Amino acid sequence: KKGTVIFEKYAGTVRIGQKEPVTDSTAFHIASTSKTFTGMAVLKLAEEGRLSINDSLQKFFPQFPYPGMTVKMLLSQRSGLQNYGYYLEKINWNQKVKVSNADVLNTLIEYKPDLQFTMNRRFNYCNTNFVLLALIIEKVSGMTYADYLEQTFFKPLHMNHTYVFNRNDSATATPSYMWNGRQEAFTYLDITYGDKNIYSTVTDLLKWDQALYTNKLFKQSTLDSAFTPYSNERPGIHNYGLGWRMYTLSNSKKIIYHNGWWHGNNATFYRV
């Protein structure tokens, strides 16, 4: 409350059947809550003048087959693109081959899957958007997505137990389990990032939350743009900003949040 922890508790073990306890430094897969970092990384590059959120994707990927699609449409989940997990099945992707972010881009270029909805017509939550945003971060910054987040957010905020997963982490990362206690298998969709694949802790996410109440990382105008609702076709309190979900309770009151689910992990991150 007001930046002070009033309740904190951890339970269980890191691995079923073993004794290592879950503690404040046990990093869990935060799944789509990772999108908050991807979105804000793009906005950081925009704030520095290294890109504009109104840029066409063809500026970064000249062969991109959907003219007029912008960075902002990806951030606000209004591109109309299909989720890559769905269209890869339709093109009979070899599931023995792990899908990379570059594969997502290249299959869009090669197969040109139909848009699920007309571009910028409506909100449509889609992981493809944030896989592409991660590639844009890499193209503009000249760094890997993981290194950019580490240098821009994790290190300055002392988020010491937060990292972007890669295959080398498979043996040490906190595992996921199914309802019956069986460990989740590593699948062909497990190495894409931007849409997921950040591991973090409650205490590190508190540092992320608190930084967003200040101008330490961002100008107020950047924060305001991130937390503005962009999908207003339907009346209601549910909306999406630039990488953030929200409940718009009144003109002056919002709850900014993002949930995440991947395999056996459920993450919830609410800013009240």
Query: Number of DSSP helices?
Result: 8
H/E series:
EHHHHHHEEHHEEEE
How big a fraction of the residues is strand?
5-15%
Category by helix and strand content: alpha+beta
The major pleated sheet works out as: 4 strands, antiparallel
The first-to-last residue Cα distance is 10 Å
The coarse overall form would be globular
Number of distinct beta strands:
7
**Poorly predicted ranges:** none
Overall radius of gyration = 19 Å
Provide mean pLDDT, rounded.
Answer: 96
SSE topology:
Elements: E1 28-29, H1 35-47, H2 71-75, H3 84-90, H4 101-111, H5 127-141, H6 145-154, E2 163-164, E3 198-200, H7 202-211, H8 220-226, E4 238-240, E5 245-248, E6 254-262, E7 265-271
Helix pairs in contact: 1-5, 4-5
Description:
The protein has 272 residues and is an alpha+beta fold. Helices cover 29% and strands 11% of the residues. The protein contains eight helices and seven strands; from the N terminus they run E-H-H-H-H-H-H-E-E-H-H-E-E-E-E. The protein has helices at 35-47, 71-75, 84-90, 101-111, 127-141, 145-154, 202-211, 220-226, and strands at residues 28-29, 163-164, 198-200, 238-240, 245-248, 254-262, 265-271. The chain has a four-stranded antiparallel β-sheet, with no helix packed on it. It has a three-stranded antiparallel β-sheet with strand order 1-3-2. Helix 1 (35-47) runs parallel beside helix 5 and helix 4 (101-111) packs across helix 5. The mean pLDDT is 96.
